[in-house]
Design goal:
heterodimer; A: 186 residues; Rna Polymerase Sigma Factor, Chain: A; Arc Repressor Mutant, subunit A; 72% helix; B: 132 residues; 6 helices
Chain lengths: 186, 132
């Protein structure tokens, strides 16, 4: 994280509320990357994530009247993004995300290393699919996007302690998947 | 469970290989921002027309109502001399006549309704009976 985006927001939001389009452009520019990342981690497809990211910002514009400017803007926005993405996932019945991605060995690897990597990837993909949806999303937002447990809790409407519990459970299963069978049972 | 867990870099790297990155390309970002800009036009125009506080809403209402109220007051002032209340005597005479027609008038009211009020008699007396 560490993005310094909080400072200009109260003024920007006030200008957007007055219908100033340049302020809205600036607000979008500041947050579009993070919103896209959240939506992508829920949906798994970039094209779908692009569509939903647009919907999120238009929804923000409609809901701006209910935003309390004394509270930080980003968690409010990320919560809208998460809810929109989860709803879109349900509505569109996205199954593509649950297909195991085709494994391709990286260039320059020896055949043994390449095979090991492909196997690891397939084990990890299977383990991800076996995780409850909530845990899968938590581990992606924490490990891949760098959100804190408090931020994830605010997005998903759960206590940060609960987020950390889910994270540890998810990690245990994924860690097992990363360890080859022969190492686990020599 | 009370402290923030450390990031698991190895797991993160493996997940990134599986899931891919989430950084927007410049092309994607431009496409999204343009689409949002187009989609937001109507809502932004609506917001710019909407008063933000109740005070502004009342202020806006008054701003519109003031010229209307001023025009109405002016019209009323101009119209008033021609459509003023009838003179008390006329009103009395009319009501006297109404009573006569209805058959409910006293004798002196009947006379007054027919010949007019004493002030009219006075005017007739002053002009020597040659009224206009």
């Amino acid at each position: 994280m560490g993005e310094e985006v909080e400072a200009p927001e109260p003024a920007l939001v006030a200008r957007v509320r007055a219908g100033e389009s340049s302020a809205f452009d600036e607000l979008v520019r500041l947050h579009v990357g993070r919103v896209f990342a959240i939506v992508l981690r829920v949906l798994g497809q970039r094209e779908d994530a692009e569509d939903v990211t647009q919907e999120v910002f238009l929804a923000v514009l409609e809901k701006l009247g209910s935003y309390d400017p004394r509270r930080p803007f980003a968690p409010w926005l990320y919560r809208i993004a998460t809810n929109r993405a989860l709803n879109a996932r349900k509505a569109r019945q996205l199954r593509r995300m649950e297909e195991i991605p085709e494994s391709a060995p990286a260039m320059g690897d020896t055949p043994d290393v390449a095979t090991a990597k492909v196997e690891e990837r397939e084990r990890l993909a299977r383990a991800m699919l076996e995780l409850p949806e909530k845990q899968r999303l938590i581990v992606k937002l924490f490990e891949l996007e760098g959100f804190s447990s408090v931020e994830i809790g605010s997005m998903l409407g759960m206590a940060d302690g609960t987020v950390r519990w889910h994270l540890l459970k998810a990690r245990e299963r994924l860690r097992r998947a990363l360890t080859p069978m022969e190492e686990r049972h020599p | 469970m009370n402290t923030e867990p450390e990031r698991d870099l190895e797991l993160a790297a493996a997940l990134r290989r599986l899931e891919g990155g989430s950084l927007l390309t410049e092309v994607e970002q431009t496409r999204i921002q343009n689409a949002i800009r187009i989609g937001a036009r109507e809502a932004l125009a609506r917001l710019s027309r909407t008063p933000r506080t109740p005070l502004e809403a009342i202020g806006g209402w008054w701003r519109a109502a003031l010229p209307v109220a001023a025009a109405a007051a002016l019209m009323l002032a101009l119209v008033q001399p021609w459509h003023g209340r009838p003179a008390p005597e006329e009103a009395t005479a009319r009501s006297g006549l109404a009573l006569v027609v209805a058959g409910e008038a006293e004798e002196h009211d009947v006379a007054r309704a027919i010949v007019g009020s004493p002030s009219e008699d006075l005017w007739v007396a002053d002009t020597g009976g040659n009224g206009p």
